[in-house]
Amino acid sequence: MELCQEMNPSFLRMTNLIAGDREETGDSASETQKRGERLLFFPCLLSTDRPKKMTSEVYQFGWCLQCTREHDFFPPRYFHVLSLHLAFKFSLSKGNKELAEKLSRKCKFWTNGLHWCDGYGVKVLVEIVDESQCVLVMMSCEKGYSDNMVSLRRDVIGEVMSVYKESCPSLEVKELVIDPKELAYPVNTPREMTVYSVNNILSAIDKREVKSDGAKDEKINEILADESLSDISNLSLLGGRDIKELGDSCTPKGDQIIILTIRDLVEILRILKGGHFHTKKWLNLGLYLGLIHSDLT
After folding, report:
1. Its domain of life (predicted)?
2. Whose C-alpha in 2, 108, 144, 205 is 20 to 30 A from the C-alpha of 267?
3. In a shared domain, residues 177 and 291
4. In 3D, which of 118, 138, 148 has the Cα closest to residue 57?
């Protein structure tokens, strides 16, 4: 069963893989269910390579989930489950045969990836690359649809992370954003490109610049050109998660957790004051940690 995924027959009607009208098909999802038949999804049987015309696509945003250990990789089941999640969540047909036929011409599915248009000016690519060590998400949008793209990438990243936690949580991974200047497709090995850690981006929002693995500074508003940075908790890179969850998913499983005592905090306070730590930042840090104002002044 590692090479396939079982499906509920009702999924077929919801995604318009079969018509709901029995007169047209001679069958229905409900009758399939009544007969006790099992539906198994086998993407591994696809022999279709990436469509050639995909290489002409131009993208504006790139994000990836990269394995950090040399011999780790995303198992076949991961892509099977993820593709079903995406098909179910982002299906726009929902019983509309005309729209289903229109969208099917804009959707491509191959051995290790899929590409679709959302019907609202946004194109999305999700692909397993780098010898199954990386989940790649790339997006582009027509002029005037950048808000739609930001909203959709929040949802897609959320699905990618949700399926990762369900299917292969033992993998050590890091979340990366690809430099917008290096989004020429295909992207087969994102780790060899200029990439920015999502954790680094979040911590650098105040300074508005972040260092890539190549140790160069880049302005955050150039990396996330279409997004407001005023509310970090609503950033699309979080995929709808609480910001604390991001740290958990990117922390190597073997790292030791250290619990600080009051004496440790006193020592931290001494070092910060000795280093002339900015008063306003100290107040914000203390309040964030749950201390009251009188303890910090």
Report:
1. Eukaryota
2. 205
3. no
4. 138
**Rounded distance between C-alpha atoms, residue 109 and residue 50, angstroms:** 8
Domain hosting 130: range is 42-250
Closest by CA to 50, choosing from 108, 105, 4, is 108
CA distances from 253 to 65, 66, 172, 182, 261 (A): 16, 15, 7, 31, 23
| pLDDT given at position 8 | 73
CATH number, domain at 137?
3.30.310.200
- Mean of the pLDDT values across residues 115-130? 90
Q: What is the pLDDT of residues 25-80, one digit of tens each?
A: 445 555 555 556 677 766 655 667 787 777 778 899 999 999 999 899 999 889 98
In this structure, the answer to whether residues 54 and 168 fall within a common structural domain is: yes
Question: Higher-confidence residue: 170 or 267?
Answer: 170
Instruction: Answer yes or no: is 27 within a domain.
Output: no
Q: What is the pLDDT of residue 290?
A: 60
Amino acid at 119: G
Q: Are residues 75 and 184 in the same domain?
A: yes
Least confident of 44-58, 112-126, 153-167, 279-293: 279-293
Pairwise CA distance, residues 290 & 297, whole Å:
14
Distance CA 8, CA 237 (A): 31
Establish if 187 belongs to a structural domain: yes
Residue 234: count other Cβ atoms within 10 Å of its Cβ. 13
Residues 102 and 190 in one domain: yes
- Rg, the chain, Cα only: 23
Cβ neighbours of residue 283 closer than 8 Å, sequence gap 6 or more: 293, 296, 297
76 prior amide bond cis, ω within 30: no
